[in-house]
Amino acid sequence: MIRKITGLLFLMIPVLINAQEVIFEENFDGNELNMDNWSYEEGDGCPDLCGWGNNERQIYNRDYVAVEDGNLVIEAVKEGEKYYSGKIISKDKVEFQYGEIEVRVNVPQGQGIWPAFWMLGHDINEVSWPASGEIDIMEYVGREPNTVYTTLHYPAHHGENASSKKTNIDNIEDGYHIFKAVWTADNIEFFVDGTSVYNFIPEKYDAEHYPFRKPFYFLINMAVGGNFGGPEVDDSIFPKKYYVDYIKVTALEE
């Protein structure tokens, strides 16, 4: 197991790992973001990735990220003709390889919003996307009520051709729900509120089909519009808030 924190690399010795060992936990206590774990990602993605690669409308700004009452709160708003929202990432601070990842969230509802909890390979700057791999543990698009997506992007299948499972869950927008991914060297299984919704086993274990044997980091954001989240946006819904209660990563048995 590998956990990388504030630039230091810690190797978890396998013989010491058991199913109960928590290797990362974030409860969003206090009233500000723990910058030892997180960084802000801001702007509109330009010039290299305008619209963040999906023709999204939001401009990310740290002013729309808050920690309140034990929750991370990401708010999406419209101000004049512009949309603003928040995004945080754990790149170069919290990165790990394999484990049971659990997150408890409360998603907002409305046409055009796209909250997500996901992961990218730590080597994305070197190999780019989709060679980096992408693990989408929770995606919700407001145009599809009562529905969540769990998805994997990798060179052989990415974008609209990604390996994805769409799950219908009545009233998923009401209250908090727990999303979990159990990630191993051989498969990734996704759960919602304790029920397995998708177990991904690749066709081959090579870089084209399973670039998931390396450290990954977290991303938490709420997009507006875009190829997947929109394209239409109902401006009457704003402001909207996306709540993340906690994140916990537990090591797996060796």
Automatic annotation (TrEMBL):
One of its GO terms (molecular function) is hydrolase activity. PROSITE patterns: GH16_2. Residues 8-254 form the GH16 domain. Keywords: Hydrolase, Signal. SUPFAM superfamilies: Concanavalin A-like lectins/glucanases. Residues 1-19 form the signal peptide. Gene3D superfamilies: 2.60.120.200. Belongs to the glycosyl hydrolase 16 family. This is Glycoside hydrolase family 16 protein.
